[in-house]
# Entry
Amino acid sequence: MLEKLFGQKKQKAEQEQEVKQESQKVKTAFYWATSCGGCEEAILDVREKLFDVLDKIDILFWPVAVDTKYSDVEALEDKLLDAVFINGGISNIEQKEVVKLLRKKAKAVIAFGSCAHMGGIPGLRNLYSIEDGLERVYFTTPSTYNPERALPSEKSELPGGGEVTLPPLLPNVLPLEEVISVDFYVPGCPPLPETILKALEVLLSGDIPEDNVLGAESKSLCNFCDRNQSKPENLSVERYYRVHEKAIPPDKCLLAEGVICLGPVTRGGCGEKCINVNMPCRGCYGPLPDIDDMGLRFLSNIASITCAGEESTDESKMRDAIATIKDPVGTFYRFSYPDSSINKLVRRR
Amino acid sequence: MNNGPVVVAFCCNYCSYEAADRAGSAKKNYPENLRIIRVPCSGRVEPEFIVKAFENGADGVMILGCHPGSCHFKTGNHKAYRRYLLLKEILRAAGIDEERVKLDWVGASEDDKLVRVSTEFVEKIRELDTGGG
# Structure
């Protein structure tokens, strides 16, 4: 009898301890907005190290992996979540509502990945109207076969009765910080496992950089690039090439070879993954701390090295050289157009 | 002061600003819409400056530098020209009328050219504004 009671007591104590441990866990949520799913994969890419973290965190909402509903989030106390990781830009009203809800429930919001950070590749749709964008995607791309001219609509009747709805698109893709206040940024498309772990380390240490960008370097990619020493002192490029138009020597500075590489304006910390497989930097780790507008700063950079010799004063030569740059806006602003001063200016009008 | 367009003109210290000064001393008329900003060289004008001018309410922006080959810093005006070419492409893609930015060469003695270029540009911007450009 006594033993039985003692046993029960012990059990109860164990339970209490478990509950206590549970409440000490860091409460987190993950959400994806306009993203490709690569950021979610990036979290899984942390692999076995993720298990060390999973013991210490409690995931209360994660649409891609956990069966939770928006109503579950609504039911939470305000500011209950310690950290909410959001990837993807904001491009429809559902996403806008969900991130606002998450902001209400969160102590800290982390914009995770290039799209949440700067708008990302989907943000290039801000160059077009919604109508033109839909026209292109659903009717005119070379790989589209759509003889019925089917187009998603906000409301569709189901054949067996009832209807389904889709959230309306916003006129522009927005970086997360334009919809809710963001506490921290983890850059990358997607952020590398090393970047994620470093970001968590920095977050836990409390030694937060002034610009709140976690896990990346504050020096440019060129500082870490092995090819940098091959760059001639006076760089002058007469013609630009796309990656498939030229055999690029694996040890030569890509810009010196005439291949557009955003290394000079982009943060390092990505492990030079692209550079190491002979691909130029496309700028996913975002602009250096002192740069407001990544594309414009890079524009100056390219202007400085194009036909830059003192003897080249021929304007038509310069025009020809500049004309070999295909799609300057999509190249200079591949990940950052919604965050650019130019897009903000256009949106304000 | 009329309610016409606001045009910011970045003038380089050694040529176009000199020309503007000369036009002023000679009491030549040019539109009051012009807001001249003196810069050491047209190569000093970053594309960020131009976008900032638009952000702050300018309707048009001019960059006026020395003629090719006569830049005080040798190649600053060429750099300005290459920036200008690229910026125009970006503005066009973004849906801002590229004609709202203009680059021209105005030598130190060319006060008449400064008057002509700026008058024409202000007229152009006025047209764009009334035509909804």
Q: What stands out?
A: The beta strands of chain A are 26-32, 57-61, 81-87, 90-92, 106-112, 155-157, 163-165, 169-174, 184-186. The longest helix of chain A spans residues 2-24.
